[in-house]
Design a protein that fits this description.
By secondary structure, the protein is of the alpha/beta class. The protein has 15 helices and 15 strands.
């Protein structure tokens, strides 16, 4: 029997290695034997052109959180419609225009459409809309998002509370919980922290406060910068940011002599292993794969209480929380972990246990494969 054709749609692609792309990598690795998979993704890198990949041309002028939006052109629309017509199942990641158009045309061409909600769209877009027009536009974006998600056959979410929130917002589509996972062998505790720091070119004697993700408004990285500046003994500290962002967002970090920004990298695990403390200052998250990967690496976590993070981080067991935008509180909590090595090590060991016990890519992808497989034989 021929495999069902599955089109995986994502609003990000290489070289922008983020949580959605890492999910895509894990899905392709484990589901390619079940489906004939092709991709529909933005073309950010002209050099990477694998087979069975349809590229959308990004806009030169419009971007959101450092990601160029899709260019509105007949060529892009033809690519989207053509890709969908050739598929049996449409599997969508992300809340960008590519995703919404794929939901629309998937329904129009009577395909089975399943969407994984990695980000709550209206919470994401809220951070980029001017305050003066915020209320009206957020309401409009929320209504449009709900309209498109209601055109899907099923929505997958990483945790139960999000499904309840979406139902309350007006989404009537079937919602299923399918949590994300972590490769605990790849994201492992380093055998030697000194060597881990040397490997990425850092002074092995400095304490490294780290963050992984976009450097952007919704990630609230400026509060991390403000907190870091308040820490004592700056000559013995390094702020390590693994990710990239707009010039506006990154400029202030570049002013710090003891700050290092890597841009998007493929070996995130090497940078996590060099960190001593991981901070997630985000204003909106669903799962935060970056936080789970940091925990798997044995790092103590300091985070805002958002999304699923508030469930898997247990205060004073594997990490601590701080109030959004409170840089003073964040600096105090960082300083406490810097000064109390035993506490930091205990948090890190418990963080590793949490991920190893509860978060598995094998279990996660297998469940998603079964869900998609049901549509293949419907």
């Amino acid at each position: 029997m021929a495999k069902q054709k599955l089109l995986l749609v994502a609003d990000t692609y290489y070289p922008k290695v983020d949580g959605i792309l890492r999910f895509t990598e894990e899905f392709l690795k484990r589901a390619s034997s079940d489906f004939d998979i092709s991709l529909l993704v933005p073309e950010f890198d002209h050099k990477k052109r694998p087979e069975k990949t349809n590229f959308i041309v990004p806009s030169k002028y419009l971007s959101l959180s450092g990601y160029p939006n899709m260019k509105l052109s007949f060529k892009n629309l033809r690519t989207i419609k053509g890709s969908i017509k050739e598929a049996d199942i449409i599997f969508i990641q992300g809340p960008a225009l590519i995703s919404y158009l794929s939901m629309y045309y998937g329904k129009k061409y009577q395909k089975k459409v399943v969407s994984y909600m990695h980000v709550i769209p209206w919470e994401l877009f809220e951070k980029f809309i001017p305050v003066v027009s915020n209320r009206f536009l957020i309401h409009l974006i929320k209504r449009l998002s709900i309209f498109f998600y209601n055109r899907c056959d099923e929505i997958l979410v990483p945790y139960r509370d999000l499904s309840l929130e979406l139902q309350k917002a007006g989404i009537r589509t079937k919602i299923t919980v399918a949590g994300l996972g972590v490769d605990i062998n790849l994201f492992s505790v380093p055998a030697n922290k000194v060597l881990a720091k040397k490997k990425i070119g850092l002074d092995p004697h400095v304490k490294v406060i780290g963050y992984v993700g976009r450097i952007s408004k919704e990630k609230n990285t400026e509060v991390l910068l403000s907190a870091f500046r308040k820490l004592e003994h700056q000559s013995h500290l390094c702020l390590l940011l693994v990710g990239d962002g707009t010039l506006e967002q990154t400029a202030k970090f570049k002013e710090l002599d003891n700050c290092r920004m890597t841009g998007f990298v493929t070996n995130v695990q090497d940078y996590l292993q060099a960190m001593d403390i991981f901070v997630m200052p985000s204003l909106t998250e669903t799962t935060s794969l970056a936080s789970l990967e940091a925990m798997s690496t044995g790092l103590p976590i300091i985070s805002t209480k958002v999304g699923f993070i508030k469930n898997y981080i247990v205060k004073d067991y594997n990490g601590v929380f701080f109030s959004k935008n409170n840089s003073t509180m964040l600096s105090i909590k960082i300083q406490k972990l810097l000064e109390n090595k035993e506490l930091a090590q205990r948090f890190g060991a418990n963080a590793r246990k949490t991920v190893a016990y509860s978060f598995s890519w094998e279990r996660s992808i297998n469940k998603i494969r079964r869900i998609l497989g049901d549509y293949a034989f419907a």
